[in-house]
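Problem 12. The chain below contains 264 residues. Write out its predicted structure in token notation.
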Amino acid sequence: MRNIFLFTIFLIALASCKEAKQVIYLKEAETLPIELLQQKSEPANVKIAIGDELSLKIESDDQESVAMFNREVIVASENQLSTTKNISDISYKVDMNGNITMPVIGKVSVVGLTVYEAEQLIASLIYPQYVKKEPVVTINISNFKITILGDVSSPGVIDVDKDKINILEALAMAGDLNITGRRNNVMLIRTQDDGSREIYRYDLNDKYLLFSPYFNLRQNDMIYVEQNRSKTRNAFTLPTVVTFSLSMVSTVVSIATLIRTFTR
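Solution.
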């Protein structure tokens, strides 16, 4: 009886240690070589896709020379006189053919290009054909969104208001994983430029996650967090197999007690 009790306690301790280790992000990250940490991270390499909305602004030392390439709207001033005002947050939507339609220039194919490449392309279409000085073109993807589903505190669609976001930042914006979320098997579903899909699995416990080519996310990425086998909100809850084992041990002990009672 005493041995059975000690074995039960051992199983509880073993399961608790295992569960505790599974909720640690980037385990032992402090042991990464300094040389590796000092390496520059790869750019997010976000590419423009069909359906993206691009906020586009063109600037120059001679702003009047590039005014015709910026979208303008007519607004009413306080004295009711009509004036024009440049609206930098008006978006150009990438159509099904991968084009945007700009003033003067017309259709420009941007699908599959990075933001930087699209900026350089549009600048080359303007200078030197239309202006004497090379303009500065600034593009932002204004509908940059990430979808996070599954065992997180606040699942849903996240609007990204900056050029890049990584997997840890995205999960933090979703309120982090619940204690029952599987940190070693987080799924990424990514739609490529040609419409095909790619699946990748993150192990958030792995310290080398920081150097994964999938660490930085792209627009329209979908993240799914699976629930682990535990059904309670406690990191030290016993896995199902251990719970079943303890139940069997308890049953055996009860039967042994009854037999011992009736054989006295």
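Discussion. The domain at 144-225 is CATH 3.10.560.10 (Outer membrane lipoprotein wza fold like). Students who got a different answer should revisit the alignment rule from Section 12.3.
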